[in-house]
Amino acid sequence: MIRDSDYEFIRKLVYDRSRINLGNDKRELVTARLNKRLRAINIASISDYCRFLQSKENADELANLIDVISTNHTYFFREEEHFKYLNQHALPELLQRRTAEHWPSLNVWSAASSSGEEPYTIAITLAEFFKRNRTDWRWRIEATDISHRILQKARIGVYKEEALQKMPKEMITAYFQKGFGPQEGNYRVRPEIAESVTFRQLNLLESEPPGTDPFQIIFCRNVMIYFDHPTQTELVNRLARRLVPGGYLLVGHSESLTAIKHSLQMVKPAVYRRPL
Ligand SMILES: C[S@@+](CC[C@H](N)C(=O)[O-])C[C@H]1O[C@@H](n2cnc3c(N)ncnc32)[C@H](O)[C@@H]1O
Question: To the nearest 10°, the Cα dihedral for 217, 213, 145, 65?
């Protein structure tokens, strides 16, 4: 088990850097994850690791610490309701407003994209919708995450079958290349989908995607649960400012914004909208 002073040191460092709030209930989880990191870099104890983190020459290790602490779990079509909502309501309406608003492209931000399943799901949903509606409207997806390691995986875009469980077979065939031989059991996102997503390392508490183009849709799902209340409030208000009027913010289904002061309208659970 981890010593109180070491836990406090790690807890504060992680909070200062990422605003991930590690309560006392996370001690066991943190210890297990730190031990994995210690084995990887051959350090004997958590106390030694804390000393290692304090030395200036090892400042880069902080990014690895955040990597092992944060939970990256995700899969294709997670919280499917959101994609149904896009198909049935948000996308038809945005497409209709497109000409009057002079929107050259549909801009979507996946703000905690993890290993890519979420932004690629968005890309597949848009590809299907745009094909059905025969529109030449362009789209671009900005996908950001704090973790360098997980973004590397996202850029490679190769997934095990388990990650695709929620997708019908025809959709898998249309949007993935099936691996053979040593790649048996792996599925690679097809280039036309991969090319519509730009991955970028970004700490949500420190910066925003470059440029001033507003987004019609922002996904910020299953990351706010790690932040404390003031941090959630600050983040939601910053995201709201990057939306077009009438733009959508989609949050995780366990991340209600009821306790947060913000200017968005709730459309349905986990779907919010900037007033028109
Ligand atoms: C559980 S995953 C969520 C993935 C996806 N949005 C979903 O709902 O399936 C949470 C992601 O948030 C990222 N994250 C944690 N703190 C962050 C921060 N301060 N800035 C940006 N990303 C952060 C983690 O690296 C992790 O990949």
Answer: -140
Tell me if 188 sits within 8 A of 154, measured CB to CB.
no
Average pLDDT over residues 38-62: 91
Is 33 in the same domain as 100?
Answer: no
In-domain check, residue 249:
yes
Give SS3 for 42.
coil
Q: How far is the CA of 222 from the centre of ligand 1 (A)?
A: 7
Q: Side-chain half-sphere of 107: how many Cα atoms within 13 Å?
A: 17
Task: Tell me: pLDDT of 234 over 90.
Answer: yes
Does residue 73 have a pLDDT over 90?
no
Can 149 be counted among the known catalytic residues? no
| Residues 237 and 153 occupy one common structural domain | yes
Tell me the pLDDT tens digit for each residue of 129-174.
999 998 889 999 999 999 888 999 999 999 999 899 999 999 999 9
Contact indicator for 198, 141 with CB cutoff of 8 Å? yes
Ligand 1 centroid to residue 72 C-alpha, Å: 6
Give the tens place of pLDDT for each residue, 79-93: 999 999 999 999 999
Is 145 a residue of the active site?
yes
Q: How many CB atoms lie within 10 A of CB 75?
A: 18
Instruction: Give the domain range for residue 36.
Output: 4-69
